[in-house]
Amino acid sequence: MAVRQPLFGTWDYVVLVIVLLVSSMVGVYYRFTGGKQRTTKEYLLADKNMPFLPVAFSLMASFMSAITLLGVSSENYTFGIQFVVINLSYGIFTWVAAYLYLPVFFQLQATSAYEYLERRFGKTTRTIASLLYTFQMVLYMGIVLYAPAIALEALTGINRVSAISSVGLVCIFYSTIGGMKAVLMTDVFQSLLMFAAVMSIIVCAVIDKGSFAEIWRIAEEGGRTEILNFDLDPTVRHTWFTLIIGGGVTFLSLYGVNQTQVQRYLTVKDLKTAQKALWWNWPILTFLSLTTSFSGLAIYSKYHDCDPVTTKVIRSSDQLMPLYVVESMGHIPGLSGLFVAGIFSASLSTVSAAVNSLAAVAVEDYYKPLYKRFYKYALSEKRALIHSKLIAFVYGGICLLIAFLAQVLGGVLQASLTIFGAIGGPLLGIFTLGMFTTRANQKGTLFGLCCGVGLSLWMAFGQPKPPPPKLPVSVEGCDKDFLLNYTMAASAVHSDESSYFWLYKVSYLYLGVFGLLCTLLVGYMSSIMFFKRSESEEKSVKNPDLFIPPLSRRLAEKRNNNLTRISDNGIGSFRNTYDTHVL
């Protein structure tokens, strides 16, 4: 079978270069305007005066990476549109994140989200949690650069080394010199390009097929429009329950307690504005998710009778979207370039968000405490700013290194993405133990975290696993040249799922759920049964600011009642009552 020639011309490169230049110029602009990034408050938190709308776009762009754009379209092409139900979970759990978790972080006003864990439990918990976050994000950054580069290389002719280097260097440049303001404003620009890339596919398909109805009809005939799967079985890959429960826990692990998002909330002036930004993130995120999902059906309308994966035109379904672009829009000057710019923008927004947040964690959680311990005095504002920029630059370099290593260690792709999901649930668990309960203590919480991470990783990497059941594809419409070279997918031997260990069959969306539940149950029970609170923990549970608003109000009322007893019974009586009271 002849290999299709990449269609990426001069105008496509012009469009791509313009996008990268604009992103760089945004960094230069914020370096020399406003406060000129002279304080860590401006560099890491944008002076806490950002409007809600750029923050809302940035919240969406931070985790809608190029992997997501390519993966969601592939998901709907291969498995159908059941995945769109996950957008309902985003709406449900936006309320939880906005009114339970977010007020605690806003009350704390700390640059690092993990400072909360130190105040609630102790330094050990803070250090371990921030190290897990750092490990999680460094791996993910490398993959976010590498995965789209290999998908685009085979089809557009863009060398993967050039793609990784250009996107990585531009990202390091503007996020290092422009700080959080540059990151937020480029996220808006890059979000619009992501929408443009996806919409170009839908518009092209509608023009090709004549209407939305025809695209839907073809998808319906191919069994891609089933959406009402309410199966309670946790081993079924996608149902309403796996998508809403599993998707909700994933959402909370990202938008409830993740440093990258918490840092964005703190760039606005007050809690109400932060909550407004989070609520606006939902329709923006949902619109991109739905359009990307429909783009999968649009792509299916072209290849429904000649599947390019089966005929070996492409290596994997993640290359479906770029294949469609070069074959359907490659003849239009600049349009392929716009699509690639949208994919690169998705990578830029995710990596820049991570670089800035990792710098904040490194300075606040590691560097400042070590500096104070070594020199016996606190790090100055000027030095903290210089070191923040240097650390952001270093993390950008590490990101590039991971991306280049990925091409040597092929298995790191799936492993890294799995680790990202497996760690998120347990990390959500320890924050939840701290904010939702007064019984949890440091030793019990850390024991729960170890068990939760262990269970999640066991489920994630345990082998063998049954292959996901894909919907049927056809090659009946392929040319004779193709038919001579493909291997029918239907000829594959189907394994008996009953022979697999049950945990290995559980839907990947429940990885975070199992990790969260294990952390919560083990952490809470072991705190009560085996460990006692330290002196500092006894003080922390009397601080209402460290708990979710309903529990905080209860604790505040108890404290006020106890304070009232001072005037009624005297200070000695108050002390006896308060010390013996069990929270």
Q: In a nutshell, what does this entry contain?
A:
The chain has helices at residues 10-31, 40-45, 52-61, 66-79, 86-108, 115-120, 123-156, 160-209, 212-221, 240-255, 259-265, 271-303, 320-328, 335-375, 381-406, 412-436, 442-461, 480-483, 502-505, 511-529, 535-540, 549-569, 571-580.
Overview of the molecule:
It is a single chain. The chain has 583 residues and is mainly α. The protein has 2 domains: 10-408, Sodium/glucose cotransporter (Up-down Bundle); 548-580. Helix content is 71%, strand content 0%. It is built from 23 helices and no strands. Helix 1 runs parallel beside helix 14 (335-375). The protein is globular and about 90 Å long. The N and C termini lie far apart (72 Å). 50% of the residues are buried. The model is unreliable at 487-494 and 571-583 (pLDDT under 50).
Helices and strands in order, then pairings?
Elements: H1 10-31, H2 40-45, H3 52-61, H4 66-79, H5 86-108, H6 115-120, H7 123-156, H8 160-209, H9 212-221, H10 240-255, H11 259-265, H12 271-303, H13 320-328, H14 335-375, H15 381-406, H16 412-436, H17 442-461, H18 480-483, H19 502-505, H20 511-529, H21 535-540, H22 549-569, H23 571-580
C-alpha Rg (nearest Å): 25 Å
* Helix-and-strand structural type: mainly alpha
The biggest beta sheet is recorded as: none
Question: In CATH's first tier, which class of the largest domain applies?
Answer: Mainly Alpha
Estimate nothing, just give the exact number of structural domains. 2
What do we call the CATH homologous superfamily of the largest domain? Sodium/glucose cotransporter
Approximate shape: globular
Give start-end ranges of low-pLDDT stretches.
Answer: 487-494, 571-583
Average of pLDDT: 85
Determine the number of helices (DSSP H or I, runs of at least 4 residues): 23
User: Could you please say which CATH topology of the largest domain applies here?
Assistant: Sodium/glucose cotransporter
Give the CATH architecture of the largest domain: Up-down Bundle
Order of helices and strands: HHHHHHHHHHHHHHHHHHHHHHH
Amount of beta strand: under 5%
Indicate the percent of residues in helices: over 70%
